[in-house]
């Protein structure tokens, strides 16, 4: 039985143009797993407000980071897939973007053509979330049904504190650390409504002290909890004092309440403390894209300097780092050795 892997990432515009960005945002923001409000309100918000203004604002941001080969997120995700396929030998790996190209449908079609009978769906999101993991799996399941293709299906699952992910992350940080630095973990933000929905009891999330640090059944699928577990696993292996690291959430959109503190709030606070060197890592992203190369390394860097902050370093995502590819291959092999999570 031939095995195959579909690596799924969030997606990117095809070109750094206003129209291409608008097309990408339309598909992304109209997904009910991303903006989970009633459909009429979602269409009014997205089509009537966001798509009229935001594409013109962020297209130049994409232009500032665009690579010769194309969108950084697409380039690095493809490199990751190519490197993984080499290690896995006879197991084909394809990329499928949840929004934009190459699509999840295209990745599945390629794997079917290669004779795959046992398929691993691998969302490239270490921390589980409705807007990323769930949406990607839903899309792949829908496409498989429309294709009338029924391979045996497995899911990679979340791996927020697995050594195969944490060890390469720690190694990528170590070379930037010194005695007087402060490490900021900047995760992609989510609306609080998404976080609260993950609490099956309704009594845990945002209702207990240090709820994200507690390991409970109630938060087993909570994104904020997973972010904290990643952070604690990294800081433990680095031997960091609590005072030498912070956690924040970036990339807010819209007027609803989001996870806090925001990254912009946190860098303002850290600038006031006059720390010698600020290091920012964004562990929710495995491949560099707009949120790391532009939002963190340009916008946040400039804001930190304006607030009187000193030296700042933004650590690259793991991308096709050899240690990470080895770790990813171990996660894949481990998953293939178990029973499927989904029914084919």
What order do the helices and strands come in, and which of them pair?
Elements: E1 3-12, H1 18-29, H2 39-65, H3 72-88, E2 93-100, H4 104-113, E3 118-123, H5 130-147, E4 152-155, H6 163-174, E5 181-188, H7 192-197, H8 223-238, E6 245-250, H9 263-272, E7 277-281, H10 290-306, E8 311-314, H11 322-336
Parallel strand pairs: 1-2, 1-3, 3-4, 5-6, 5-7, 7-8
Question: What is the count of DSSP helices, taking H or I runs of 4+ residues?
Answer: 11
Helicity, in percent? 40-55%
Residue windows where pLDDT falls under 50 for at least 5 positions: none
In terms of structural class, how would the helical and strand content be classed?
Answer: alpha/beta
Please, what is the average pLDDT?
Answer: 94
Rg calc: 20 Å
Strand content: 5-15%
CATH architecture of the largest domain: 3-Layer(aba) Sandwich
Compute the number of structural domains: 2
Q: Can you tell me the CATH class of the largest domain?
A: Alpha Beta
Basic shape: globular
Largest beta-sheet details:
4 strands, parallel
Describe the structure using short key phrases.
alpha/beta, Rossmann fold, four-stranded parallel β-sheet, 15% strand, globular
Task: Walk me through this protein's architecture.
It is a single chain. The chain has 2 domains: 3-159 and 323-336, Rossmann fold; 163-314, Rossmann fold. The chain is built from 11 helices and 8 strands. It has helices at residues 18-29, 39-65, 72-88, 104-113, 130-147, 163-174, 192-197, 223-238, 263-272, 290-306, 322-336, and strands at 3-12, 93-100, 118-123, 152-155, 181-188, 245-250, 277-281, 311-314. The strands form 2 sheets. A 4-stranded parallel sheet has the order 2-1-3-4. It has a 4-stranded parallel sheet with strand order 6-5-7-8, sandwiched between helices. Helix 4 (104-113) packs across helix 5 (130-147) and helix 9 (263-272) packs parallel to helix 10. The protein is globular and about 60 Å long. The model has no long low-confidence stretch (mean pLDDT 94).
């Amino acid at each position: 039985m031939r095995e195959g892997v579909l690596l799924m990432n969030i997606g990117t515009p095809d070109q750094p143009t206003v129209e291409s960005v608008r097309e990408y945002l339309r598909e992304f923001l109209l997904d009910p797993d991303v903006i989970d409000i009633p459909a009429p309100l979602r269409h009014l918000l997205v089509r009537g407000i966001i798509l009229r203004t935001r594409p013109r604002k962020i297209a130049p941001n994409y232009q500032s980071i665009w690579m010769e080969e194309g969108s950084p997120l697409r380039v690095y995700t493809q490199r990751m897939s190519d490197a993984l396929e080499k290690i896995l030998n006879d197991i084909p790996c394809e990329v499928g973007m949840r929004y934009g190209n190459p699509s999840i449908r295209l990745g599945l079609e390629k794997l079917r053509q290669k004779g795959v009978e046992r398929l691993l769906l691998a969302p490239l999101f270490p921390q589980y979330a409705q807007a990323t993991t769930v949406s990607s799996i839903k899309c792949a399941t829908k496409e498989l049904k429309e294709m009338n293709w029924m391979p045996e299906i497995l899911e990679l699952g979340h791996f927020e504190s697995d050594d195969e992910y944490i060890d390469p992350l720690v190694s990528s940080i170590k070379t930037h650390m010194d005695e007087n630095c402060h490490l900021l973990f900047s995760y992609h933000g989510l609306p609080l409504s998404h976080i609260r929905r993950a609490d099956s009891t309704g009594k845990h999330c945002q209702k207990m002290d240090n709820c994200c640090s507690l390991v409970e059944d109630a938060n087993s699928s909570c994104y904020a909890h997973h972010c904290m577990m990643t952070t604690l696993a990294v800081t433990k292996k680095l031997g960091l004092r609590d005072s030498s690291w912070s956690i924040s959430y970036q990339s807010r959109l819209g007027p609803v309440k989001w996870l806090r503190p925001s990254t912009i709030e946190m860098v303002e606070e850290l600038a006031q403390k006059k720390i010698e060197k600020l290091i920012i890592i964004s562990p929710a992203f495995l491949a560099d894209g707009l949120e790391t190369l532009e939002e963190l390394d340009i916008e946040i860097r400039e804001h930190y300097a304006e607030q009187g902050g000193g030296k700042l370093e933004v650590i690259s995502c793991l991308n096709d780092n050899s240690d990470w590819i080895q770790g990813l291959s171990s996660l894949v092999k481990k998953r293939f050795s178990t029973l499927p999570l989904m029914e084919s």
